[in-house]
Every structure is written in C-alpha cells, then in structure tokens.
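Q: For a teaching handout, I want to show students what a protein-ligand complex looks like in token form. Below are the inputs, and the small molecule is magnesium ion. Please produce the holo structure.
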Amino acid sequence: MAKHTIVTMPGDGIGNIVLSETLRVLDAAGFDAEYVHADIGWEFWRSEGNPLPERTIKLLEKHRIGLFGAITSKPPAEALEELDPSLRDKGYVYFSPIVGLRQHFNLDVSIRPTPSLLGNPLNFIRRGADGGIEEPKVKAVIFRQNTEGLYGGVEWTNPPAQVRAALDTHKKMANFKDTPNEDLAISTRIFTRKAVKRIVRRSFEFADKFGLKSVTVCEKPNVIRETSGMMLHEARLVQQEFPHIQLWNTNIDAQMMWLTKNPEDYDVIVSGNMFGDIVSDGFAGLIGGLGFAASANIGDDCAIFEPTHGSAPKYADYEIPIVNPIAMVLSACMMLDHIGEFDLATRIRTAVEKVVADGQVRTYDMLKLRGTQEVIHQGAASTVQMTDAIIAAL
Ligand code: NAI
Ligand code: MG
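A: Here is the structure, written as tokens, with magnesium ion included.
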C-alpha cells in the first residue's frame, strides 16, 4: 500500500496538462503515493448541472489532500446556454467549484509564496541609485484569508427592505438616502474574529518556523476601520507571543506602489480575501507571473494545492502543449511540505531552481513570446520538455 493517497482534480483546459506533468515529476522523485482521480469542472457542469459533484467531495472527505489543476468559469447566462438541454429550466446555477471547495472544507488559509528564482528572465529588475541595474531577491509569502471578506458572496443589487432598513440605522447611510433601492448595489465585507485570528496566527507561526523577521498586515485600517482594523488589532495581540518577529502595517494601495521600490524587504504578508488576492498577484508579477505562482488552500481537515493560474482555454488543445508547468510543480512541493515530505519537496524545488538557473530550457513565457503553437519553432521548450528537464535535474 502506498504511503499517501492524493486526490487529483485536473479540471479543465491546461489544468489537465500541468497536473499530469507534475505527477511525472512526483513519480520521478520517488513520492510514494496512490492518486485517486476526482471529477471537477466545466464538463460536469454541462453534463450534470454540477461542476463539483458530490462524489468529489466524498473523495476529499476521505483522503483530505488534493492536487487541483484549474477550472473554466463563465458568466451565469453563458453557463446556462452550455448546460445539457435535458437539464435546462431545472434551477441549476453555475458556481466556481474551487470557491465551492474552499467554502465547503473551510480552507480558510491561503498561502502564496513568491520567491524569485535565480536566472529567471522574467524577474523584476530596477535601476539603482548609481544608475546600475538591480535584481532584488523577492521572497514574500502571502497569507490570504480565503473564505470571507468581499468574496464572501453576501451581496445584493436592489437589497430587500429589511436590509435597507438595517443599513439606514448607520449615520453614513445619510449620503445615500435619496438613492432608490433598485439603484443600490451592495457587496459586504464580513470578517469574523475567529477567521482573522486564524490567518494572523498562521502567518506568525510560519515566520517563526522559517526564522523570518517580519509579518506585514496589508489592509487599509485607517479607512476600512472595522474589518481591516480587526485584522491589525488581532495581529498586535498575536505579535506579543512572537516578540522576535516585527509587525509591520501597510496599506494595500501603498503596498502596490512599494512592490517596485522595495519588494525584497517583505517576508510574510497577511491580508483579507480581496487584498490578499491583489497583493499576491502583484508579487507574483515580480517573479515571472502565472507560470510560477503556486498556492495552498489549507483547512483543519483538508488541504488543496493549486497553481494560481486558470485553465487558459486557448492553449488547452495545442497538439504540443506550451504552458509552463512550474507553478503546478511548486504547488505540489507545498503539498509535500504539508504532509511532512520535506526532503522530497526540497529536492524537487532544487531541481526547478537548477533548470531555471541553467537557462537552457525555457517555456514561451520565459522567452517573452506571445503564446502560439509557433513558439516551439522559436526556441521555446514545450510543457513536456520543461518537465523532462526538471526530472533530469532531479
Ligand atoms: P488564465 O490564468 O487561464 O490565463 C491567462 C493567461 O496567462 C493565459 O492566456 C496565458 O497567456 C497565461 N498563462 C496562464 N497559465 C500559464 C502557464 N502555466 N504558463 C504560461 N502561461 C500561462 O486566466 P484567464 O484567461 O483569465 O481565464 C481562463 C479561464 O480560467 C476562465 O474560465 C477563468 O474563470 C478560469 N480561471 C480559473 C482559475 C482556477 O481554476 N483557480 C483561476 C483563474 C481563472
Ligand atoms: Mg487572483
């Protein structure tokens, strides 16, 4: 019997490609695992009216560790058009299955590391004070609250009367008193103390474990006083237990400006759902973008690891796949760390670092080419060649 059982959810488009290539890397590294395939994504929306079938939930409930590729999402009207005709008018409503998984399993801690790899031609460079070129070593790890806040889904256009009445008890609603209900769109930003405490604590524990000097709360507490304010307040309390770790406090807008000024200064960054989404993409842009950005979704009973890119449908059917598998491979390394296979994770990461540093094998994104089937003839490595190079470096 294998030591680990992993639920694999390739999903749609290039999710299938990068996941199967990643399994080749895991096999080559000697990871002792059995993989259980689980259905998820567009195909199951179309044929069953559910992109996240119950059988997939059951498999995750049983095995608790998942590797996820990517899914395709489309707006509600378009989704309905593609539903199998026999299922139409039955009340099915499309939802994003990865958001569904995060909520179902309360995967409330999202971790998004953004380490720059030496030799990556996509790394951010800037001009130094002496006019020379600097390539800062970016190492930020973003902890994003994954289930609440602006992405919590509590929102209305034309809010019900009792919602309006409750809002009208707030004195700032005076500014909107002449706006009719049907002209009001409201998206709530709900933070719970429990979830805030958890994400803040996890970020400090991480900094502590890896000997990092600072945790930065990246929110906007001077303006969004209640929610951002709660996160900063809880961070101050948790910091007292970790006196050797500094607590920094940045505003999301200023943080985006500082991305290009001093990104190397940041260790761990902790944010609510939306600002975490923004700041993690911002940092990912400094280290090569979607082909390099890995992530983990962690709950108490389940954890799912995925690249942050989507299904890139335009590349899904290329005869020779061209997309970069590194984001998925590094996501699998996060999984290995999570289940205690630290040596394997380090070996695979080292192999990826070596391939990037060697610079002989580069996918189209690393050559700054526009993604077409032609890139193979322009010197870009295919997805399979990149995977082969990583395996060879192992
Ligand atoms: P996307 O991430 O799929 O692709 C955007 C562009 O980034 C691609 O066209 C390609 O140029 C580049 N790219 C993405 N992955 C790459 C890789 N591994 N190597 C090299 N280049 C890569 O985002 P897009 O086009 O906005 O969305 C496509 C579909 O994916 C949509 O249906 C969207 O809803 C879904 N999506 C799913 C996500 C998930 O499963 N977690 C996340 C983001 C989008
Ligand atoms: Mg995002």
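A: Two things your students might notice: The first helix runs from residue 14 to 28. The chain has a mean pLDDT of 97.
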